[in-house]
Structures are given as structure tokens and as C-alpha cells.
């Protein structure tokens, strides 16, 4: 029995192709969860092409599984020694070994799965299916995300008077119908494709609108200076940002669905362009993520700045300052979760509000150590306006002095 297996990685997923038993043994040995690659779909589409008349039967005899690469499993790709093509961006190789265990990289064999996938058309077809599976996986994760935040995106869209958002509901229904037909028919016909051709523009308009709303939240925070206004702006951001993130997530999900349909259509009509189209979709996807990341990162920056301002004024405005930081943390948590679902790297840590007692303790220690200089410093920490800070800092200095005498007399710790 031929134990050679073909590995193909596009950076986001890994295809394992070969004898069914060998494939299963390899995946089991590496502890990798997988799903059917669906190579058999390529047979009818590529079998008639010149020079690969045996493709259909060869594909039918091969088993293919797809693995989504995590940070951990991606490290195994280096261990397997796959070679990367500068033309396609794919990493591939053939592994041989008893019981599916890796024995190192070997050159493509003259027979078996290695010979099958040296054919550019078949390799492009397999890579196209891998891209589709990755898109569908992303769509499922976004569905889980929307369910987890209990965001009724359709209700949000229907509640808007903007034409782009209203049309988004219709585009959503058309795309879902096309995906359902594809699932049952196994391909995207000209009739099905004609229904969805205009939807990318509608999705783009809705995405642009949602991004503008997020930018507006950031600008509102940027132009507020008083702690009261910051608290109001932060609460507004907290109450609405999750809704607009949900709309963006739905846009991204539908764009992934369009990509799945496009690849099927290109495979049917112009299979020689499949690889270049797959690469173009990957570039376009990266640009969409960059655009989304730019707006959400700007909002996070304004939230951080608002929290810094609130912390600097915690002595005079303990309640409002805490409200600003807590609202900011909720916004930041929502954005970071959203980034994770879309695959945007984000190492941001949640902010922590300075507790009122901590701020007073800092001022107390400063006053006891430096006397009048400490009181002046407390005045600066409490508020940038000296006149407004004077009554608060004077009261604090009296309380601090009383507590210090009591501590010296009774040797007790006070707060």
C-alpha cells in the first residue's frame, strides 16, 4: 500500500492528500482535527482538459482532508520541511513513512499522490478548494460571534433609514440563497451567479457606513475635554460600538461567501485563472482587514487617551473617571473580541481604573514626605485648573494630617 501523502499549505490551512488510510494515520499521529477536502469536485471540471484525461479517476482514488492551521499546528509545517513556491505562495511536499508517520521531505515521486499534484491545474484546483474551506470556516466563526454577543444584525439593519443599510438586507437574502443552491447542486451556475453579481457593491457601501459610524465615535471622544463630556461620550460608544462591529462582521461574512461563489464560477468558466483569482481574493481580503483595523485601532487609541485623562482627574471626579475607564474597557473588550474573530492580531491589554483610595493614598504619602510640595503635586494630579483644585486639596491635606497624627499616636494603619 502506498504510504506517501501530499501536503499543501497556503498559510491558513493544510491539505493532506493520499491513500485514505495513510491520510488518517498521519492526521491521528499529529493530533490534527480535519474535514473533507472534497477533491472529487475537481474531477468533472478538470478531467476534460488536455493532458490530464486521467485526472478524474486519479482524484477519485485519492483522499483529501483539510486542516485549519492554528499557531501551534502552523509550527509543524516547518517541521515537515515543506517547500514554498514563489509563484503560487503554496508550500508543498511529499512525506513517506510507515503508519503515516513523518520520515522527512522527499522529492515528488513518479507515481502516487505526488505525481497527481505536480499538475498545475490540479494543484490550483486543490488550492482553490482550500481557500473556499477557509472562507467557510471564517463564516462559521462569525456566526458563532454574532450568536455570542446576541446581536440581531438584521434588526439593526432594518432599523436604519440609510439606503445602503436597507439594501444590505436584500443582498444578505440573495447571497444566502445562492450558497444554499451551491450546497445542493455542487456548483454555481450562470443563473445563480447572475443573482449575486451586484451584491458586492451593496456590501461595500454598508461596510463603509459602519466604518464611518465607528470613526464618528472616535472623533466624539477626541473632541471632549471635560470629564463629564468624556463620560457621556464613553457611554455612547459603549452602547453602540458592538452593534456596528456586528454589522462589520456580517459584511465580512457575506464577502467571504461571495469569494466562495466566485472561485466556483471561475473554476467552471476559466480554470486557468483559478490560481491568480485565488491570490487576488487573498490580497483583497487583506486590504479589507487593514481598513477595518485602521478604524477600530483609532477608536481604541481614543479610548486609551480618554482613560488616561479620566485617571488624571480621579481625585476630583471619582465617579465620572471610573465610568470613563469602565466604559472604555467594555469598548476595548468588544473590539479585541471582534479582531480575534476576523483574525486581526491584537495584544492590547484591558485598562485598569485607578481606585479612589489608591489615588488618595498616593497624595497622602506625597504630602507626608514633601509637605507643601506634595500638596501642590496633589493639586496638579487632581485637576489641571488650580482654582478648582484648591478646595479639594486643602480638605485632603487636613484629612491626611489628622490621619497621620492618629497613626503616629495609635500605631494603626489608616486609609
Task: Summarize the structure in words.
There is one protein chain. By secondary structure, this protein is α+β, with helices and mostly antiparallel strands. It folds into 3 domains: 115 residues, no CATH class; 194 residues; 55 residues, no CATH class. It contains 16 helices and 7 strands. Helix 14 crosses helix 16. The longest helix has 43 residues. The protein is globular and about 75 Å long. It starts with a strand and ends in a 5-residue tail after the last helix.
Secondary structure blueprint with pairings:
Layout: E1 5-9, E2 13-18, H1 20-30, E3 35-36, H2 42-46, H3 55-61, E4 63-68, H4 71-80, E5 83-84, E6 91-95, E7 105-106, H5 113-117, H6 120-148, H7 153-159, H8 163-185, H9 190-196, H10 199-222, H11 227-269, H12 274-312, H13 318-342, H14 356-370, H15 372-382, H16 386-410
Antiparallel strand pairs: 1-2, 1-6, 2-4, 3-4, 5-6, 6-7
Helix pairs in contact: 6-11, 7-8, 8-9, 8-10, 8-11, 10-11, 10-12, 11-12, 11-13, 12-13, 14-15, 14-16, 15-16
Amino acid at each position: 500500500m502506498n504510504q506517501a501523502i501530499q501536503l499543501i499549505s497556503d498559510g491558513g490551512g493544510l491539505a493532506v492528500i493520499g491513500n485514505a488510510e495513510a491520510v488518517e494515520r498521519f492526521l491521528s499521529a499529529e493530533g490534527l482535527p480535519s474535514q473533507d477536502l472534497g477533491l472529487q469536485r475537481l474531477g468533472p471540471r478538470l478531467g476534460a482538459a488536455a493532458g490530464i484525461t486521467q485526472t478524474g479517476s486519479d482524484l477519485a482514488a485519492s483522499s483529501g482532508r483539510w486542516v485549519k492551521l492554528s499557531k501551534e499546528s502552523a509550527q509543524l509545517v516547518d517541521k515537515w520541511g515543506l517547500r514554498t513556491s514563489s509563484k503560487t505562495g503554496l508550500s508543498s511536499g511529499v512525506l513517506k513513512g510507515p503508519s503515516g508517520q513523518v520520515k522527512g521531505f522527499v522529492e515528488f515521486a513518479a507515481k502516487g499522490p505526488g505525481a497527481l499534484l505536480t499538475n498545475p491545474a490540479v494543484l490550483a484546483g486543490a488550492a482553490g478548494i482550500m481557500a473556499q474551506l477557509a472562507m467557510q470556516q471564517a463564516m462559521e466563526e462569525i456566526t458563532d460571534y454574532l450568536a455570542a454577543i446576541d446581536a440581531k444584525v438584521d434588526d439593526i439593519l432594518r432599523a436604519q433609514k440609510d439606503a445602503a443599510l436597507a439594501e444590505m438586507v436584500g443582498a444578505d437574502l440573495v447571497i444566502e440563497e445562492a450558497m444554499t443552491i451551491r450546497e445542493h447542486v455542487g456548483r454555481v451556475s450562470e443563473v445563480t451567479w447572475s443573482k449575486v453579481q451586484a451584491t458586492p457593491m451593496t456590501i461595500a457601501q454598508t461596510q463603509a457606513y459602519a466604518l464611518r459610524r465607528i470613526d464618528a465615535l472616535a472623533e466624539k471622544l477626541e473632541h471632549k475635554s471635560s470629564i463629564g463630556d468624556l463620560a457621556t461620550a464613553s457611554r455612547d460608544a459603549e452602547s453602540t460600538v458592538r452593534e456596528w462591529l456586528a454589522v462589520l462582521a456580517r459584511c465580512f461574512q457575506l464577502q467571504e461567501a461571495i469569494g466562495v461563489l466566485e472561485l466556483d464560477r471561475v473554476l467552471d468558466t476559466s480554470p486557468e485563472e483559478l490560481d491568480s483569482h485565488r491570490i487576488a481574493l487573498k490580497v483583497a481580503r487583506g486590504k479589507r482587514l487593514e481598513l477595518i483595523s485602521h478604524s477600530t485601532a483609532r477608536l481604541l487609541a481614543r479610548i486609551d487617551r480618554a482613560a488616561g485623562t479620566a485617571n488624571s482627574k480621579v481625585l476630583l471626579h471619582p465617579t465620572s473617571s471610573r465610568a470613563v475607564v469602565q466604559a472604555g474597557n467594555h469598548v476595548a473588550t468588544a473590539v479585541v473580541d471582534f479582531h480575534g474573530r476576523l483574525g486581526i492580531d491584537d495584544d492590547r491589554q484591558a485598562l485598569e481604573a485607578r481606585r479612589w483610595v489608591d489615588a488618595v493614598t498616593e497624595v497622602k504619602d506625597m504630602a507626608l514626605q514633601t509637605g507643601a510640595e506634595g500638596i501642590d503635586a496633589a493639586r496638579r494630579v487632581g485637576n489641571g485648573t488650580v482654582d478648582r483644585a484648591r478646595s479639594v486639596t486643602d480638605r485632603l491635606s487636613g484629612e491626611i494630617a489628622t490621619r497621620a497624627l492618629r497613626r503616629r499616636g495609635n500605631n494603626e494603619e489608616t486609609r
